[in-house]
Specification:
Length: 344
């Protein structure tokens, strides 16, 4: 049985990936700080949960591991802008260190789930050979990680970088700060779709089931096809201009609810806009995204309607990290009074 170590395992993508790996008979070591709760991964007899910081992993963690999928990150632009140092440490330095430790421990494969946001702003269709243009701390950290892990590729250590489009769809650790999920929730809850100005920006989208299927496929792929390679992950039909994406979601939700949905503009014009070419992943791996936007939106709507999915504070990544920091400071203050408050 192959053993896969997944970092950031209880996150939005990880909490879909881990059960899928287990169902495919992999043994899984799930590493996470569980910032979004410890209940995102169900217990399983071959799931080993490690509550640790990715920055503190040691070579012992990689004993008998066959592959690493290094999802860990401060996972969006606004959070990364707020926690710049932690983002560079976690998203870049710790992932480079994890890859190096894995190699040293004799692990055979390392996958870096990077982001298409590394392309920043471009008018034309970008493929993997194009120059990147990381505009934010989050994108810069991904670029650093890519530059750090790729040179570790060797005959006995397969390294692959996956530049994922913006992900959508249902997950145990739900993120409503992602475009499709947030728009769908806005339509459902307030009959208003929040749309970031000016709507002309392009953004590729990818269903969470598709990207996690791909991670599983990579674990069984011949090294010569993927070693030292970068892949854009998504599909050209999902290269949406944001205003068109919004219109499609409005139509799907209006039909589902039989209600009129309005568009509500917010924010300054987005500085990021990119459309990607996905020929390489299709021609090299025969991989194509299978899910469409309507399926992703409907599954969220149905989960909301049935009450299985409830929007809580932790589903907006930035706001949740801000709350955690505030509580941490309060606890430190209270600790100063330890003993004094214990008046009895
Ligand atoms: N979701 C997307 O649209 C998307 C798109 C492109 C790339 N990615 C990348 O995919 C990966 C996963 O994204 P996600 O959406 O699942 O994010 P997420 O925020 O839901 O998950 C990240 C997980 O990492 C954990 N974590 C954070 N810092 C940690 C640390 N120092 N030590 C241990 N655990 C820590 C968190 O508790 C969380 O469970 C990230 O690298 C992200 O940059 C995501």
């Amino acid at each position: 049985m192959k053993k896969v170590l997944v970092t950031g395992a209880a996150g939005y993508i990880g909490s879909v990936l881990v059960p899928k790996l287990l169902s495919k008979k992999y043994e899984v070591v799930a590493v996470d700080r569980f910032f979004f709760g410890a209940n995102k991964l169900a217990q399983h007899n071959v799931l080993n949960v490690v509550k640790d910081d990715s920055r503190k992993l040691t070579i012992e963690h990689f004993k008998d591991v066959d592959a690493v999928i290094d999802l860990v990150a401060i996972s969006n632009d606004p959070s990364a802008e707020l926690f710049k140092q932690a983002t560079m440490e976690i998203n870049a330095d710790s992932r480079i260190r994890t890859a190096a430790l894995a190699k040293q421990a004799g692990v055979k494969q390392y996958i870096l789930p990077s982001s298409a946001s590394i392309y920043g702003f471009h008018d034309d269709l970008r493929d993997e050979s194009c120059k990147t243009n990381p505009l934010t701390v989050y994108a810069k950290a991904n670029e650093q990680a890519e530059l750090g892990v790729l040179p570790l590729a060797a005959e006995d250590f397969t390294v692959t970088v996956m530049r994922q489009a913006t992900v959508y769809g249902l997950s145990p650790r739900m993120r409503f700060d992602l475009a499709v999920n947030g728009m769908t929730y806005g339509c459902y809850a307030s009959k208003m779709l929040p749309l970031m100005r000016d709507g002309s920006q392009y953004r590729p989208m990818l269903h969470v089931q598709d990207t996690t299927d791909l991670f599983c496929q990579l674990l069984e792929t011949e090294s010569s096809l993927i070693n030292g390679e970068i892949f854009n992950v998504g599909s050209e039909s999902h290269n949406f201009q944001i205003k068109d994406l919004a219109q499609e979601i409005v139509t799907i939700v209006a039909e589902f609810l039989s209600e009129k949905i309005e568009i509500e503009w917010y924010g300054d014009p987005d500085v990021r806009s990119y459309r990607l070419n996905f020929n390489k992943i299709e021609s090299t791996l025969g991989w194509k995204a299978k899910r469409n936007l309507k399926e992703g939106v409907i599954e969220i709507l149905e989960a909301l309607k049935s009450g299985k999915l409830v929007k809580d504070d932790s589903s907006i990544t930035l706001e949740w990290y801000q709350q955690l920091v505030t509580w941490h400071k309060r606890i430190k203050e209270i600790e100063k009074y330890n003993g004094i408050l214990d008046i009895e």
